[in-house]
């Protein structure tokens, strides 16, 4: 009987694992199934571009079926697992509960925004982690301008013209830079708002923004943001959010209807329901080969703590894959790592099925790119630091090469060039996706 390989999660890690398995596994001997909530891979590094309206939101995703021809796709939500019976529970989109049996399971369920118990955060702030977040933020900027334009009282209007981003990693900085750039173009159509001006604030708990890049590049990025009038508050945290604004740890109240939370990620909640061993941060514990490890079981090798659970692997943001370049630490939650873990886990599954030993994951970050809007970016490639326009060209070329499929690349190129020629699109897709009731007043 054909071996059943099930992949839970079709993000960067799961998608690249499926793609490699299609190439490596003979069709007759194995059957690959991928379970994902949506029928697409979300290319998260381009989410800020979708929020900032240089890219059509549909163009920052890759339809899974167009790229995975030999993999069975189940669109639904992973609800749990029984490792002893080797089954995965899935709630399919039509509401039917399925139980998928597996011989090999690869868990690649990724992460969600990590929140803190800050009063008002869950009720009044938005994340930047999904396509809905990006679309909602773009709509929010336009609705705020529309409402502000019709308000007589400048004090009340300022709430709608205030935007606060909390968390200055690359997602926060890129998101803020793109959205602010978008708002600066859009506000030209709103005379009253233009006369009053907007306020954009970036709040970061640590001593500098963008900890992922060296200090010289982070200083360049901060200078660039300040030059555009963005206020950067380091060593500051968010104390409270309300419908009317944000209060910072230093006591300052910022009138704002838009608060965006980009302060880190935590493993996808479904991971805790799989009955697998987790570390203190809630990530699945794996050995260097990405096989799930039971820390309580006696280790067969003196080098590992615990015994590997045969047939279960975990990769991506939701797994604590040991980082060979930083002993004692897990790999950082980046797409670069997830992609390479996906490819290697596929090789390891194939090796295990053939009775060979799996290989350990070794990868040293090759570089970082972060766009700052206005044709500027910061980047490091193979140790070389880039800033400004050359870094922006590198960032765009990198994403163009990494985006799977020629058609998807072409869509990016067209969107970017149209935005360069005609500016960002200031139309609001508003209620798109929510049909108009047939009978309404
Ligand atoms: C705005 C932003 C910008 C970023 N920019 C960069 C960058 O420039 N460079 C970089 O290297 N990294 C970047 N990252 C980080 C990168 O996106 C992640 O590290 C990467 O996506 C991790 O891959 P993954 O496969 O583990 O998780 P994901 O890509 O998140 O995939 C997980 C998949 O599992 C699915 N899933 C989750 N729960 C369930 C469930 N219960 N049932 C079924 N399916 C489920 C999800 O829908 C998703 O498809 C960025 C992240 C964000 C948010």
What does this structure look like?
This protein has helices at 12-24, 47-51, 64-67, 121-124, 131-149, 154-160, 170-186, 191-196, 215-227, 335-353, 389-402, 406-422; strands at residues 3-8, 30-36, 40-42, 61-63, 72-82, 87-92, 97-101, 104-107, 111-113, 125-127, 162-166, 199-203, 231-233, 238-241, 245-248, 253-255, 258-261, 265-267, 284-285, 291-294, 307-314, 319-320, 367-371, 377-381, 384-388. Helix 1 runs parallel beside helix 10. The radius of gyration is 23 Å and the shape is globular. By secondary structure, it is of the alpha/beta class. The chain has 12 helices and 25 strands. The N and C termini lie far apart (60 Å). Strands 7-6-5-2-1-8-21-20 form an 8-stranded mixed sheet, covered by helices on one side. Strands 10-17-11-12-13 form a 5-stranded parallel sheet. Strands 14-15-16 form a 3-stranded antiparallel sheet. The longest helix is centred in the N-terminal third of the chain and has 19 residues, at 131-149. The protein has 3 domains: 3-113 and 265-353, 3-Layer(bba) Sandwich (FAD/NAD(P)-binding domain), CATH 3.50.50.60; 115-263, FAD/NAD(P)-binding domain, CATH 3.50.50; 367-423, no CATH class. The protein binds flavin-adenine dinucleotide. Flavin-adenine dinucleotide binds next to helix 1, strand 2, helix 2, strand 5 and helix 7.
What is the percent of helical residues?
25-40%
Please give the CATH architecture of the largest domain: 3-Layer(bba) Sandwich
Number of helices: 12
Oligomer: single chain
The CATH class of the largest domain is Alpha Beta
Q: Look up the CATH topology of the largest domain.
A: FAD/NAD(P)-binding domain
How many structural domains does the protein architecture include? 3
Poorly predicted runs of 5 or more residues: none
Q: Choose one word for the global shape.
A: globular
